[in-house]
Amino acid sequence: AQSVTQLDSQVPVFEEAPVELRCNYSSSVSVYLFWYVQYPNQGLQLLLKYLSGSTLVKGINGFEAEFNKSQTSFHLRKPSVHISDTAEYFCAVSEDQAGTALIFGKGTTLSVSS
Amino acid sequence: GAVVSQHPSWVICKSGTSVKIECRSLDFQATTMFWYRQFPKQSLMLMATSNEGSKATYEQGVEKDKFLINHASLTLSTLTVTSAHPEDSSFYICSARDELAGGTQYFGPGTRLTVL
After folding, report:
1. How far apart are the two ends of chain B, measured CA to CA in Å?
2. Cis, bond preceding B8 (omega within 30 deg of 0)
3. CB-based contact A41 B109, cutoff 8 Å
4. Tell me: the pLDDT tens digits for B59-72?
5. Cβ–Cβ contacts within 10 Å for residue A87, how many?
6. For an interface test with A, which of B4, B44, B49, B58 has the most A Cβ atoms less than 10 Å from its Cβ?
7. Which residues in chain A are closer than 8 Å to B105, comparing Cβ atoms?
8. How does the average pLDDT of chain B come out, rounded?
9. A57, B9, B16, B68: which one has the fewest Cβ atoms less than 10 Å from its Cβ?
10. What is the pairing mode between strands A108-113 and A87-94?
11. Where are the beta strands (DSSP E) in B14-89?
């Protein structure tokens, strides 16, 4: 069975600082990995996804993530955050490229302050 | 990107009553929609997969007679919480699959249900 662990429930950072949101997964089959962002009172928006190829994936809003198969990780990074990046971030895994059957982590709250 | 709407955005009801939540894909057709439930500080849990013109597929542990799903058209799926109880209070999120976009799921903004 697949599972996703987001190691940090809350990550407070100052504006313009770098940030890393951690995600580890477990699966016995090939996986496809996703990061979603949820702003207050809004639905989930896809940030980026890893399907195959280069292990470094670039997404929207300056975010990127690196797939590490040996460490079963897919950590999300941004070199310099903005106040507007304050949101809930979800890591998810799926057995198909379209992300149909998504298994979500519990989420990480990123709080950016000035 | 594609837009998915939900209505209502929040609802308060009395215990024992039924509540219907709508999920609409506004600018694409979706043969498949999904219903998730999200508890505070928890991840999204898939409740069921809604297929246009056929019966929904429920995840293990989800009561199909309590959470009625109807996917009557290519742009609308409804979730009805029947005989609601306080433990049904939660945030319900739908998503719709856009086949023309490689099957990408687009999520709605969610519906906050509070049962008194």
Report:
1. 37
2. yes
3. yes
4. 999 999 999 999 98
5. 21
6. B44
7. 98-100, 102
8. 92
9. B16
10. antiparallel
11. 19-25, 32-38, 44-51, 57-58, 67-73, 76-81
